[in-house]
Amino acid sequence: MLAALWATEQALTPAEIQAGIGGGLAYNTVHTILKRLYDKGLVLRDVDGRRGAYRPSKDAAELTAEAMHQALDRGPDPIAALQQFVSGLSPEEEQALRDVLDERPSPGGRET
């Protein structure tokens, strides 16, 4: 459901989402899932008259990063978890991580 919303810039109605995911789910099921996503703060609802359309509250990268932070906060040793995570990165992912870390300002606001 979120993938369908992330794939467009506009808010979608339950019927549009149902059609976009192939119609394998009943309209009521799509509507129920959207209500649950709304209750969790994962989607926003735009109301235009009686017709409601939904859009994601966060993009895929933001949601993934939030889940990673939550996972680190739950564990007893976040540094060990990060070490395990990094050891499983592909060379391309590792380079992207190095690039991001190199671009961050150092503590105290000074560039390194």
From TrEMBL:
UniProt biased composition (Basic and acidic residues): 95-112
Keyword terms of this UniProt record: DNA-binding, Transcription, Transcription regulation
UniProt name for this protein: CopY family transcriptional regulator
Transmembrane segments: none
Keyword Transcription: yes
CDD domains membership: HTH_ARSR (cd00090)
One GO MF term: DNA binding
BP GO annotations: negative regulation of DNA-templated transcription
Membership in a protein family: Belongs to the BlaI transcriptional regulatory family.
Region (Disordered): 91-112
